[in-house]
Structure formats: C-alpha cells, structure tokens
Write a structure and sequence with these properties.
- Keywords: Signal.
- This protein is of the alpha+beta class.
- It folds into two domains: about 1-230, no CATH class; about 235-490, no CATH class.
- It has helices at about 1-15, 20-35, 60-75, 90-100, 105-115, 140-145, 180-185, 195-205, 235-255, 260-265, 280-285, 290-300, 315-325, 330-335, 365, 425-430, 450-460, and strands at about 130, 150-155, 165-170, 175-180, 210, 225, 225-230, 305-310, 310, 345-350, 380-385, 395-400, 445, 465, 470.
- α9 (about 235-255) runs parallel beside α12.
- It starts with a helix and ends in a 26-residue tail after the last strand.
- The structure holds 2-acetamido-2-deoxy-beta-D-glucopyranose (4 copies).
- One 2-acetamido-2-deoxy-beta-D-glucopyranose binds near residues 310, 350 and 474.
Length: about 500
C-alpha cells in the first residue's frame, strides 16, 4: 500500500517537474531564502524537491533544527532567564523505557535520543503540540492502512479525535503535515525531508509569523503556549513593499530612457515618490490599522497604470467609492472581528464576472460566505479580509478572473493540483496562484509578495510587454496560465509555508 502510494507520488511529481524550467525554480528559491533566513543551516536544493525519497533520515541535522526551535520557544517564554537552566531532557530519556517495545525504525530512535522535549509541556510550534507521546505514534494510521510505513512524529495542537500532525514516512524518509486523518487520506500530498519541515518552522519564527512570548503577553493574538500567532508583521509589509517596488523598477527598466514619460523620470528620484494612497485619504476612509493600510501607505505609487495585464493601480477616488459601497456581510460585523473589512479590491480590472447560463458562481472562496455570489463582482487582485481571526494571513491575496481557467488542463495551483473544478465552477475563476494544500502548516491564501515576485519575473523575462502605461495585454493575458508552454510561470512555490 505504502509503496504503491509512493510510486504514484513519484511519478506524479517527476512528470510535472520535468516541465519546469530553471527560471521559475530560482524565482522560488529567492522567496524561500528571504523567508527562511536560515544562513546558519546548510541546505541543499534537494531539500525543496517534493516526493524524492531519501536513503536515510539525517537524524543529527534534524535534531539540531528541532532543538533550536525548542530553545527559541523556551527563551521567548522565559525572557531574561539563563538558558543553561533549561532542561534538555530528550524524548528517549523520558519515554525510551516504554518505547523499546515499539516497532520504531533505528534512525527514528536515534532522532528521539537527540530531540529535546520542551519544558513544562510548551508547544513545539503554534500548530504542532510536540513530539508524539508513545501512545499517539500511530494515531489514525491504522485506519488508513499506513501503519507499517508511517508514524505521527509530531502531534497537531488540534486535539480532536481525528487530529494527526506531522507524519513521517520512514520508508521514504519524508514528512508531511496532515492536521487530520481526512487530510492524510488524499493522495496528492507533497512530502518533504523532515529537515525541510523543521526549517520551515524555524523560518516562521525568523519571519515573525509566530513568536514565543510569556503567558499573558500574547495580547489578543491566538496563543498556543508559548507561541503567539501574528496575522501580519513588519516583515510581511516589508516583503510586499519591496517586491512591489522591484516590480515597478522591472517595468521601468524595460522602457528605453528616451521613451520614458515625465512621471517615470520623476519616479526615479526617490525623493519625489508618493505613497500608493496618501495618509489623508486612508484617514478619511477610516481604514483600520492593518496590513492593507500599511502597504498602501508605504508602497510607492507607480508612474503608470497597469501593474499586470489589465490590472490598474488603486486610486484615491476608486478606493473611496469602493469603501463607500462595500457590502459588509453579517459574518464580518460579528463583534469578535476587530474590523469590518471584507476582502478589498486592490488592483481592479474594468471587467466584471457574469455567471454562465445555467451555472451559479459561489462567492464562498472570496467572501467566505456560501450565500454570496461572484456574479457582478469586479475582477482583479483582492487582498483578503483584514478582519483578524477570520484570515490567518492578512497579507493574503486572491486573483479573481473574469473568465474560467482550467479547460486545457495545464494551469496548476502551488500544490500541483489543476486549477478549477468540474463541480464548483467558481474555482475556475478564483484558483490561480492559490496554494491548495500546504505540506507544513494549515493552508492559507497566497501571500501578496509572492504574487508580485511572479509578476516581476514575467516582466523581466519579457513574457509581458510593457510601455509607459505599464504592463500591456489586458485581461486576456491571464489565459496564458492555462497554456501548454507557459503555465509553469504562474505556478507558485510548493515548498513554502
Ligand atoms: C439551460 O437552461 C435552459 C432553461 O433554463 C434549458 O433550456 C437548457 O437546456 C439548459 N442548458 C443546459 C446545458 O443545461
Ligand atoms: C474548470 O476546471 C476543471 C478542472 O481543471 C476543468 O476540467 C474544466 O474544464 C474547467 N471548466 C471551465 C469552464 O473552464
Ligand atoms: C485548503 O485546502 C482545502 C483542501 O485542499 C481547500 O478546500 C481549501 O479551499 C484550501 N483553503 C485555502 C485558503 O486555500
Ligand atoms: C478596459 O481595459 C482595457 C485594457 O485592459 C482597455 O483596452 C479597454 O478599452 C477598457 N474598456 C473600457 C470599457 O474601458
């Protein structure tokens, strides 16, 4: 069973990777390096290739990464305390006596002999409670028939009966996050080396996505002691602003100096730039402090209209109209949400969606509410609701197209699944750039800076034409995402949280 599944996975992924050119891979690498910021940890390209079996578990490297995370958690929880006081009891020291009887592979035992248990039952990460108790190692795997090849190495913080966690396949020496047994039943999962998963968790602390803080200091953030979840942080704003600026420069660089408009020449002087939306307008709009507000006030205003095919920059008047007409759904006006912002149209096109005859386009994916429709919605790039507790990543973005994609069968989500669905037509309008499932944490919307980075590569590599009005081509340009030769340029990174 395990072998058939592994063979299926390998076949699936190799045939797809074969089509990917180096350009896109190095683009992904750039984002990863930015986010990982793990200079201290040597890594190889193969760490980021899914479903490539490893001959063995590098238990020493994994234990180093594991213990680093435990230490960061302890330090954050115990500010000012001397780290040498920290208990470094390993899993094997605590459970080894009982675990001797268990059918654990040698390399996993070696790992468990080195991997420290967080003190006081602190959570290992926000979503993983920690290394499984001996009684939890095969939770749910019997039901699925994977108990001979897999263990639930880390249990998820979700304590429901169907909860699983980070699964380690000791035949392939690869791991994948499956919050529940239902997620693990899917065959299309992308498995990575254990060290990759651990590097991802470490990078989440580096990027400030999760921060270890003492009890009571988590403010109103979701807290899984000692980890506080950050809906967005300075790093997210900086990445988005930097990548947006890079995109503008990439566009300008493709226009010969003689052909540059006066506004472009002015933009090249950093002192003459203005923000995308001025503070006065943001204030007048009553826009709450949020990722969106910080982005709009810090990103420079491009000296042209089109930042991508058919997508224009937000203007003060358009944004004011948008806010004035914004329909607040019941779910957003719930008092537990700290603001009333539904998803906001950041880069609008001039086209709206129209349901095809005999079909209805559910607005669930965009608005989160199955009672809504996409019919009449303006197509363009949306930023997700800034209402915290509703979106885990408030720097998430969604591209809503005016036509369905996927009929050619090439367009892919980050997890290599085809875009669109034969059953839910609205997904054909909304799936582009989305990640689908994620191999390391719960899935979420694609992050805005990842979209900008992809756009920049489209400009730099000459796929999109530009003039002094910005990117040319109009909305029809998005059909390229389902093109036999070009689809891969639109596929987002799978090896990222
Ligand atoms: C669409 O609906 C109309 C009536 O509303 C019906 O006559 C037609 O057969 C339907 N077409 C399809 C493809 O279902
Ligand atoms: C929607 O996507 C599915 C799956 O990719 C595809 O089979 C179907 O043809 C698409 N439908 C349209 C109308 O593009
Ligand atoms: C997360 O994954 C599930 C299953 O693949 C999917 O139904 C859901 O839409 C995804 N959510 C996001 C935000 O991508
Ligand atoms: C919509 O925008 C496209 C460029 O994306 C432009 O060619 C077209 O004329 C515009 N249509 C209207 C009605 O403004």
């Amino acid at each position: 069973m395990g072998q058939i599944r592994a063979a299926f996975l390998a076949l699936f992924i190799f045939s797809a990777i074969g089509a990917i050119l180096l350009e896109s891979v190095s683009g992904h690498m750039q984002t990863r390096l930015q986010l990982l910021n793990v200079h201290d940890y040597e890594f190889q390209h193969s760490d980021f290739e899914p479903n490539v079996a490893r001959p063995h578990l590098d238990y020493e490297r994994c234990a180093r990464l594991h213990n680093k995370i435990v230490e960061i958690g302890w330090r954050g929880y115990n500010p000012g305390k001397d780290p040498s006081l920290r208990s470094s009891q390993t899993w094997w020291e605590r459970y080894g006596e009982d675990a001797k009887k268990l059918p654990l592979p040698i390399s996993v035992i070696e790992f468990l002999k080195l991997a420290e248990l967080p003190e006081d039952d602190l959570s290992f990460t926000f979503q993983l409670r920690g290394l499984s108790h001996p009684s939890e190692l095969w939770n749910g795997l019997q039901e699925l028939g994977y108990e001979a090849t897999e263990i639930v190495l880390y249990s998820s913080a979700n304590r429901e009966s169907q909860g699983m966690g980070l699964i380690f396949n000791h035949e392939l020496n690869l791991a994948v996050y499956s919050p529940t047994i239902f997620d693990h039943a899917r065959n299309e999962a992308l498995l990575y080396p254990l060290e990759t998963a651990l590097m991802m968790y470490l990078s989440m602390t580096n990027a400030g996505k999760i921060a270890a803080v003492p009890e009571g200091k988590q403010e109103d953030k979701p807290y899984s002691t000692p980890w506080a979840w950050q809906y967005y942080g300075e790093m997210d704003v900086k990445f988005a602003v930097d990548e947006f600026t890079n995109l503008i420069h990439a566009i300008i660089n493709r226009i010969s100096p003689e052909e540059r408009s006066n506004s472009i020449k002015e933009f090249l002087d950093p002192n003459k730039r203005s923000p995308l939306i001025d503070t006065g307008t943001l204030h007048a709009l009553n826009m709450p402090t949020s990722f969106l507000r910080l982005f709009l006030s810090r990103a420079p205003k491009p000296p042209f209209s089109f930042v991508a095919p058919g997508l224009t920059i937000p203007t003060r008047s358009a944004l004011s109209r948008l806010f004035a007409s914004m329909r607040v759904f019941d779910m957003y006006s719930d008092s537990t949400f700290n603001s009333l912002l539904p998803p906001t149209l950041l880069f609008p096109s001039n086209l709206t969606l129209t349901s095809p005859p005999n079909a209805s386009l559910s607005g669930a994916f965009l608005f989160g509410d199955p009672q809504t429709t996409l019919d009449g919605v303006t197509s363009g790039l949306y930023i997700v609701s800034q209402s915290e507790h509703y979106e885990p990543f408030t720097n998430g973005a969604k591209l809503i197209l005016p036509f369905p994609l996927g009929a050619n069968g090439f367009a892919k989500k980050a997890n290599w699944q085809p875009i669109g669905s034969q059953f839910v037509l609205s997904q054909n309008y909304t799936d582009l750039y989305q990640m689908g499932s994620n191999s390391f944490i719960e899935n979420h919307s694609i992050m805005l800076h990842q979209v900008f980075q992809s756009w920049r590569l489209m400009v730099e590599q000459g796929v999109w034409d530009v003039d002094d009005n910005g990117v040319q081509g109009g909305m029809e340009g998005w059909r390229l995402a389902d093109d036999e030769k070009q689809w891969w340029r639109f596929k987002m990174d799978d090896a990222l949280w």
